[in-house]
Specification:
The protein is an alpha+beta fold and 230 residues long. The chain is 34% helix and 32% strand.
Length: 230
Amino acid sequence: MVERAQGADYAAAAATFVAGFFFDGAADAENETEFRGLVRAQTSDLRKRYANRDGAALLVIRDPNERGSVIACGGVETRSYVGAMDYETYVKNGGDVGQASVAKRPVVANLAVSRAARRKGYGKAIMRALEDFCLENEYDEAVLVVDASNARAQGLYKKLGYRVIGGDKNAAALKIIDGRAKETTTKTLVMRKSLTNGGENIDVATVGAVIAVLAALATQGDAILDALPF
């Protein structure tokens, strides 16, 4: 059963996410010091993003056989976007803040299923519950960001109706390298799903943002290319 996270669920969800996202299949996953440090940081981040915030929630499926354990989790929060580009990324890439058309969009993140519980439909169950939460909060869409190299996650999202609408070539990332968490960059994709109108995924806001960027090319030169949302 999908439920809203409470109390100790945040730490349990953090452990599931860290194990699946940072250490999945890694030969050096036994680095307990690094693992515990990441779980502490992730727990703090999950609480900050989802606990007691309007329009935000962390959803979990608890392990019926192990008290205090979470076998699947996922969150949604509202963030400011300029078309298909997160507002912070837009500013980082030199976007004109004064002319930006900023809109709030519900962003799905932190989806994880424990290794032992995969291929049982838990990921889909969490995603459907997150989409229902978006609708309950009067959003007609859901967006998410996925690493461009994560084919497994992209496959799931595409089956659920998500389509790529943009991306970031140099997104900040944290990855396990030689057993240690290190800051790096990665290419990410922004994917969107319409939750109404039969799932039509034409994104008017994104189209408008792209047209505006292309129009600016005439006066601002090649530097604008780095701000294109794909």
